[in-house]
């Protein structure tokens, strides 16, 4: 009879599982969602599946147990929702009809990624991959289970931002782990505070591994990107990611650690770059340190810092940073010079040819002059480019316009405090890219500010009330009452709010409600 371990207490159990563990008394009922592997499944002959934890475009993640060494692990199952049609009775995945080839190639990308990670483990700064194998017409990867908290949780517990040297010290192991990935030809593409673990014992380590398709918007999988930390090139399948993509994310993490704020969404920055210097947000951040972060967060990949060692050295040493800035775009200036030189040569040659052709005698009326004209490929010049729809009203400017009849438009909606209702917040693909046949255009449209909770303002003075309601986006107006003649307001201090037209704690739509507030006025003579 096959054996598994209790996913709670690691004691041996026989299959089929009883209702409760005879050792720890905890429930062994299967509460994993439909389609996921059942609780207590034996995998690979040596792993027990525990609770379902999460899912992304790549697959499903479970808490699990390695039976031989009696230790907790995390098990990742390749299960792409866009390419799968569930699983058979024996647990095997069923690819969607017509997507079998894409399912197979994506599966091999998943397997190659985790086998490559297995090959460089153990490495300080990386959560360790322990095993990779094929089963159930899919691939499984086993990762160590780290006891601790995420960097996101840790930062939420701190009353103030971290000091720059403290942030660099904490992230140093992670940076070295990313260097090891880059040396092996791997790019993480998902670095963010949620994927940085702070173990109870040992240095910080990076998790959240994913394939290229998972970390690229517009790919064949349902993408998973981290707003503020994902680089702009990840928002288009036509752009290339590289080591500079992870540099962007690491710099964004440092920016969050030392300022308390994450950088703006990369796509929003491409429309209107509102990235503030870390020094302007937090004066304790040295100017050179803030300049390094700005350099590493550049939108242009050619102007951005290119490698993690370069980022680490520049953050740690103002002298290194100074030399970098003296050189220009951190060693990218040579590429720029070469590109400019080639462009200058091309223009010079073109002008010479034009001058020579222009100096020739006029051709006979019957002669064929087309042979003297340079032949150029104008296909790309004539190609239709994706328009910029950000900032337009979706219903008025796009939905009913014949200009966009050649697009398949997908609309998602989200609340926004800054963008009016109905206005397009962002789009994919980015404006200026070449339009494809049957182009899909994904638009995110603002729902407006949405419902907000009316704060308690009674007893506060005008300045305090204005600050609270302005922050919440709630429109308001004050009405003064004479506290000498208005009996209900006797005893109130002059200038304080004594009552409101909306009860504190109510959920209101601030686009439709203006809150009136009675304020204690001057005493009558």
Explain what you see.
- The protein is α+β, with helices and mostly antiparallel strands and 525 residues long.
- The protein folds into four domains: 3-144, Phosphorylase Kinase, domain 1 (2-Layer Sandwich), CATH 3.30.200.20; 148-334, Orthogonal Bundle (Transferase(Phosphotransferase), domain 1), CATH 1.10.510.10; 384-448, Trypsin Inhibitor V, Chain A; 452-520, Trypsin Inhibitor V, Chain A (2-Layer Sandwich).
- Helix content is 29%, strand content 19%.
- The chain contains 13 helices and 21 strands.
- The chain has helices at residues 100-120, 151-157, 164-183, 243-259, 266-271, 278-281, 287-296, 308-316, 318-327, 333-359, 379-382, 394-399, 462-472; strands spanning 3-5, 12-14, 42-43, 47-55, 59-66, 71-78, 84-87, 93-95, 129-135, 138-144, 148-150, 196-199, 205-206, 408-414, 424-428, 440-446, 452-453, 476-481, 497-500, 507-508, 515-520.
- The strands form seven sheets. A six-stranded antiparallel sheet has the order 3-4-5-6-10-9, with helices on one face. Strands 11-12-13 form a three-stranded antiparallel sheet.
- α3 runs antiparallel to α4 and α3 (164-183) packs antiparallel against α8.
- The longest helix has 27 residues, at 333-359.
- Mean pLDDT is 83; it is low at 329-341, 359-381 and 483-492.
């Amino acid at each position: 009879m096959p054996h598994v371990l209790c996913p709670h207490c690691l004691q041996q159990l026989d299959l089929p599982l009883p209702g409760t563990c005879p050792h720890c008394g905890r429930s062994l009922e299967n509460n994993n969602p439909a389609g996921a592997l059942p609780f207590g499944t034996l995998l690979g002959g040596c792993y027990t599946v525990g609770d379902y934890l999460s899912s992304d475009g790549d697959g499903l993640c479970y808490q699990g147990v390695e039976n031989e060494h009696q230790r907790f692990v995390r098990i990742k199952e390749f299960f792409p929702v866009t390419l799968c049609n569930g699983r058979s009775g024996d647990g095997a995945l069923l690819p969607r009809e017509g997507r079998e080839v894409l399912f197979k190639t994506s599966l091999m990308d998943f397997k190659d990624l985790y086998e490559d990670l297995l090959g460089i483990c153990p490495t300080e700064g990386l959560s360790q991959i322990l095993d990779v194998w094929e089963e159930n017409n899919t691939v499984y990867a086993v990762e160590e289970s780290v006891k601790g908290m995420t960097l996101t949780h840790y930062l939420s517990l701190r009353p103030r931002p971290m000091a720059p040297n403290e942030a660099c010290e904490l992230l140093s192991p992670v940076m070295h782990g990313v260097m090891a990935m880059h040396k092996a030809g791997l790019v993480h593409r998902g670095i963010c505070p949620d994927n940085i673990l702070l173990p109870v014992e040992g240095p910080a380590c990076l998790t959240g591994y994913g394939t290229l398709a998972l970390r690229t918007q517009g790919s064949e999988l349902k993408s998973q990107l981290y707003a503020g930390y994902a680089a702009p090139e990840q928002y288009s399948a036509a752009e290339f990611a590289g080591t500079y993509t992870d540099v962007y994310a690491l710099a964004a993490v440092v920016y969050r650690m030392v300022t308390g704020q994450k950088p703006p969404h990369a796509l929003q920055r491409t429309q209107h770059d509102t990235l503030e210097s870390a020094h302007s947000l937090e004066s304790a951040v040295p100017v050179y340190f803030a300049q390094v972060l700005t350099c590493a967060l550049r939108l242009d990949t050619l102007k951005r810092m290119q490698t993690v060692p370069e980022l680490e050295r520049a953050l740690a040493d103002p002298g290194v940073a100074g030399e970098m800035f003296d050189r220009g775009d951190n060693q990218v200036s040579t590429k720029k010079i070469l590109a400019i030189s080639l462009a200058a040569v091309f223009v010079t040659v073109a002008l010479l040819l034009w001058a020579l052709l222009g100096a020739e005698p006029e051709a006979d009326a019957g002669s064929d002059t087309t042979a003297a004209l340079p032949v150029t490929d104008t296909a790309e010049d004539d190609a239709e480019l994706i328009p910029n729809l950000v900032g337009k009203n979706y219903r008025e400017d796009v939905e009913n316009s014949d200009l966009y009849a050649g697009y398949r438009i997908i609309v998602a909606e989200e609340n926004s405090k800054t963008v009016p209702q109905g206005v397009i917040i962002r789009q994919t693909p980015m404006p200026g890219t070449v339009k494809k046949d049957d182009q899909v255009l994904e638009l995110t449209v603002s729902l407006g500010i949405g419902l907000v909770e009316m704060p308690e303002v009674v007893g506060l003075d005008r300045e305090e009330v204005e600050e609270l309601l302005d922050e919440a986006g709630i429109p308001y107006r004050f009405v003064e009452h004479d506290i000498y003649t208005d009996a209900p307001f006797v005893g109130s201090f002059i200038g304080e709010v004594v009552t409101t037209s909306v009860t504190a704690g109510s959920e209101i739509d601030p686009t439709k409600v203006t809150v009136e507030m009675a304020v204690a006025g001057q005493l009558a003579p």
